[in-house]
Fold Enoyl-[acyl-carrier-protein] reductase [NADH].
Amino acid sequence: MSDTAFPKGDLMKGKRGLIMGVANKNSIAWGIAQQLAAQGAELAFSYIPAMESRVRQLGESIGVEFYVQTDVMSDEDMDRTFAEIKDKWGKLDFLVHAIAFTDKEALKGSFVENTTRQNFKDTMDVSAFSFVDAARRSSELMTDGGAMITLTYLGSERIVPNYNVMGVAKAALEASMRYVARDLGPKGIRVNAISAGPMKTLAMAGITGGRQLMSTGRDWSLLKEDTTMEGVAGAALYLLSDLGLSCAGETLHVDAGFHAVAVPDVSSLSDS
């Protein structure tokens, strides 16, 4: 299913977790799932009906046998999802939240002109509140502690052309992550976020000028390279495994160092 190679081992042996957000073979959630499976984790995938066939095909290639249909905007669906997990497994060890959505028209031009009240609400519901809701429900099944991660992007901190309302939602997501980390920390549950650089994903394809974002990310980065799936998946493995002990409330940038640059060294930029 993928040409990406992930190190094998037993860092996640005996651990069970829910992956929310696998869409296709280019999804960051899929890369993370492959790495976790390679390290011995037992996985459950959530999906929406339109994605079921694709998600199951991917999951079966790494031995996933547990799938739950989930609409994160529905309390009834979320109730059923976590009831199924409790009935089948009894407990959870980790959660990967990689869900975001907004109207494509809101990712063009002016944030002020193209953001409607309803789209703002829906974007926040799916892209930010769904993590809070999933974290609360997951924590009830993490009876022996655990770990959670969500995925964000630098557009939460700085202005990115055409990212618009999604940048605002990601800022809310990061703030939510910190408060969730505060509340769940005493229960032995570590909560963090990964801020990945531009990658060839379904989400990036929906942003006007996404290809230019990737080129800029590569040229301006400290490493002068694209963000790799191996890098993001490796960071996820660190945060979700026992390697990440003592790490909580952190937004870990995995973007080849792009986030650290204020003004690029123009002499080093490519002509592309």
About this structure: The first helix runs from residue 28 to 38. Strands lie at 16-20, 42-47, 66-69, 94-97, 146-152, 189-196, 251-254. The mean pLDDT is 93.
